[in-house]
Please model this.
Amino acid sequence: MDRITTLDEFIIDKQMDFKHATGELSGLLRDIGVAAKIVNREVNRAGLVNILGLDGATNTTGDDVQKLDMFANDKLVEYLKNSGECCAIGSEELEGFIPLPTKSGKLAKYVVVVDPLDGSSNIDVNVSVGTIFGIYRRVSDPEGDVELADFLQSGTELVAAGYVLYGTSTILMYTTGNGVNGFTLDPSLGEFCLSHPDIKMPKSGDFYSVNQGYYLQFDLDMRRFIDHCSDSKRKLRYIGSMVSDVHRTMFTGGIFMYPNTRKNPQGKLRIVYECNPMAMVVEQAGGKAINTNLDRILEQEVKELHQKSPIILGSCDNVEELISFVKKYR
Ligand code: AHM
Model:
């Protein structure tokens, strides 16, 4: 059997490719990996402890907050606080970002954005959920306070991004802009082990993924494209958990869409901690990610921490096909 490469070994190995690397980004990625293992443990035993269900609160965008959402949020904050490599965190579960002063007084140069538990409405029914993360280099004065501008950078400025899928197995996928690698958690070792090196998404695929229940609320071009997918006997798959739906699309090829609807004219998914990190992963695997105006997700202007965007992502050919439909019907 080939020797196992753990996430930590892989991160350190990759760091050596960069002559001037200080190890801060590597440290941060490793800390995210540890926090993911803790969230994984709780997600796995969620049915056994009194942690399932609503927390009784709503988050900044009006969704019900599940107890496990807050648990995942708190764990990520705790780990990033102790890591000393992150000067602030922005999260779906927090109205504003939280600055994380380091114990040593050292000024960390990265900010982290997270959706601690994406797809959390699925938790109570044992369906896969995930954690999404992105890392930006701080742009404000390093001697001063962290500013909102540090979080409102466009996705092209992401230094690293990834997600963890708590599914039939737990997998962590990340990119630092040089391809995507996937690590499956080996529960017997308690380690994420390299299982999917240098992932390349199929150039096209037979699957389409969209909440078709909103069909009548979509724009005409989107409806025509969905009709076309259905007419050409493509397979519809929709879990309702972005991480799971995108992860499947990464491997089977095809297209994932959360367009604008009449109820959500800006779509539902948030640019900073959902769309941008997932778009970076997809592009790094050879796919495409755009909004319904056909603009690249990663180049969108970001004005608010919890700003939403319609999103379409997937295999190159499928996204190109959608673009030609939109051009024809708009
Ligand atoms: P959440 O972060 O509150 O869980 O919401 C995000 C989730 C995504 O994972 C998923 O793609 C989408 O909401 C599903 O929404 P819908 O039920 O409207 O199809």
